Amino acid sequence: MTSPPRKLAPVFSRPPAVADPAKAERARVAMGWLHTAHFLTSAPQLEHLPTLDLPEIAFVGRSNAGKSTAINTLTQQTRLAFASKTPGRTQHINLFGVGKQKVDDAVLADLPGYGYAAVPKEAKLRWQRVMGNYLMTRETLRGVVLMCDPRHGMTELDEILLDVIRPRVAEGLKFLVLLTKSDKLTRSEGAKVLSITRLQAGGGEVKLFSALKKQGVDEAAELLWRWVHPETQPASE
Ligand SMILES: Nc1nc2c(ncn2[C@@H]2O[C@H](COP(=O)(O)OP(=O)(O)OP(=O)(O)O)[C@@H](O)[C@H]2O)c(=O)[nH]1
């Protein structure tokens, strides 16, 4: 005797996430733009830094926070900013031009990492002065990207830096906190540090970012693109 055909259990599966094509296109444009990044110049002091009549985006952060790696990831280049395993290696302000069709329309500024314990106190104070002056006086500064290692959270120096830029933020300076190396966090640790940092940042954008897992890369790239090209702001935002 043949057994009756078994009834198949209905399959309740979540429909596949529909990618937003407009969002994907914006990320593609932003990543293509950042990929044009090329070295312009390097200066040990603020007074040696040329004034370029272009909006500038500064990358700052505690030494070893993952700043060089993040710049290389955002520009999809392997050695644009020198990523080193030795903290405190970035000693100059490095400027990179970005722009399509070989015409730069913005500058990326990689500032020296701060807070590395082995750097002599005098050198530390000198760099804090250089950075403070840069952040307060650089007229072309359009936005600041602060990199933090979320396992250490925002340090005192990070908070001082935010205090330094706050008056300029009130006047329209953009800022973004990237919580780097997010691949080292569990999902719940990531959510926790994200909400704590959002409170500390007092209204600025905060995103989890991993160069290793490519988390947050498209979103950060798109934000930087919009800082420089505000006319392309999506209507819904
Ligand atoms: N797991 C993981 N490690 C990372 C990531 N980003 C950076 N790192 C590691 O963190 C260390 C420091 O990264 P860097 O990019 O050199 O840091 P930096 O902030 O530029 O350092 P300074 O030159 O001292 O200012 C390196 O060993 C990187 O490989 C990431 O997304 N995930």
TrEMBL record:
It comes from the Bacteria. Gene3D superfamilies: P-loop containing nucleotide triphosphate hydrolases (3.40.50.300). Necessary for normal cell division and for the maintenance of normal septation. Coiled coil: none annotated. Keywords: Cell cycle, Cell division, GTP-binding, Magnesium, Metal-binding, Nucleotide-binding, Septation. Residues 53-230 form the EngB-type G domain. This is Probable GTP-binding protein EngB. HAMAP family: GTPase_EngB. The keyword Manganese does not apply. Pfam families: MMR_HSR1. InterPro entries: G_ENGB_dom, GTP-bd, GTP-bd_ribosome_bio_YsxC, P-loop_NTPase. It comes from Variovorax humicola. Belongs to the TRAFAC class TrmE-Era-EngA-EngB-Septin-like GTPase superfamily. EngB GTPase family. Its cofactor is Mg(2+).
